[in-house]
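REVIEWER CHECKLIST
Item 1: Sequence provided? yes
Item 2: Single chain? yes
Item 3: Sequence as submitted:
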Amino acid sequence: MAEKDKLFSSKIKYSGIVNFAEFYKFCFDWLKDETGIDVVEDKYAEKLSGDSKNIDVEWSGARKLTDYFKMEIKVTFKVIGLTNTEITQDGKKIKTNKGSIEVGIKGTLVRDYQGKFEKTATQKFMRGVYEKMVIPSRISEYEGKIFGDCDEFLSQAKAYLDLEGKK
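Item 4: Structure as written out by the authors:
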């Protein structure tokens, strides 16, 4: 069985004006283009209550780093009280949304994801020696990459929300 190390888990919160459809597309495109991860939407649920809606979205994705390492991510969006609103920007009226958004991301490094070293006790032992003696710097490098990608995703999402909310 593959070894999974959860390396990053964090979230941001935002309340204010945001075009949720554009924000959703921005996040999806950023993950795909900047990290090379194939993102899959596992869940999209909307609950209507009056003129507002609550939305829950879950994405997951993975990318093979080498034949031994793989990175996995899980992104969640929790939107509360999303309503349609109209703002005036540069003298024009623009339709957008207003509400509270919480975006979370978890990053995991998967070692021996194909289970090649799981067949016998000797192979498991050899994997332990390999990881501790031969490739510890490579493990650190991939852990840093996953941590950096997840942190940068949250930073980009926060910057987008802050920038769009100020319009």
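Item 5: Key structural point noted by reviewer: The chain has a mean pLDDT of 91.
Item 6: Recommendation: ____
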